[in-house]
Design a protein that fits this description.
Elements (H helix, E strand, L loop, with lengths): L18 H14 L4 H24 L3 E11 L5 H11 L4 E8 L4 E11 H12 L5 E9 L5
Antiparallel strand pairs: 1-3, 1-4, 2-3
The structure holds nickel (II) ion.
Length: 148
């Protein structure tokens, strides 16, 4: 009279994927020590959703947040560097610091640190990232009170 094993309700779905991408993914999950692709995919989905939830919370926060934006651009493109600079000067009350790295003859990497209300910080991020020619615009948001 064994107790009936409690079945966890799971759903299955099929994924169409490029074979080369799948091979790369298999290498990744092996390195990470996952037993199965399902385990790895579940973790990735959880991570993405948790990250999104945190970002949304910070974006809507009534308090201030820190933001770090990284961008890459070709400084030879007409007016591009000027536009990036202009927006930064315009947001001088929010921008704490910026660092400019000359990657090579053409490309520049810029890291912009900000502190302000979520919506104000995001507005600057959007304005800079949407300049034509600005590439790899990635940002992270952090709460003003960094949890210990
Ligand atoms: Ni440069």
């Amino acid at each position: 009279m064994g107790r009936k094993r409690k079945e966890r309700c799971v759903e299955r779905f099929g994924v169409s994927i490029d074979p080369a991408l799948l091979r790369e993914f298999d290498i990744y999950i092996k390195q990470k020590g996952y037993g199965t692709r399902s385990e790895a995919i579940r973790d990735l989905i959880r991570d993405v959703l948790a990250e999104k939830k945190t970002a949304q919370k910070l974006e809507r926060s009534k308090g201030k947040v820190y933001a770090i934006l990284t961008i890459v651009y070709n400084h030879h493109l007409p007016k591009l560097a000027e536009k990036v600079l202009e927006i930064q000067h315009h947001g001088a009350d929010i921008i704490i610091s910026s660092m400019h790295i000359h990657i090579d003859q053409e490309n520049c990497l810029e890291v912009v640190a900000m502190k302000g209300l979520g919506r104000d910080v995001l507005e600057i991020i959007d304005r800079i990232s949407s300049i034509k020619g600005v590439r790899m615009g990635k940002y992270i948001l952090l709460p003003e009170d960094i949890p210990s």
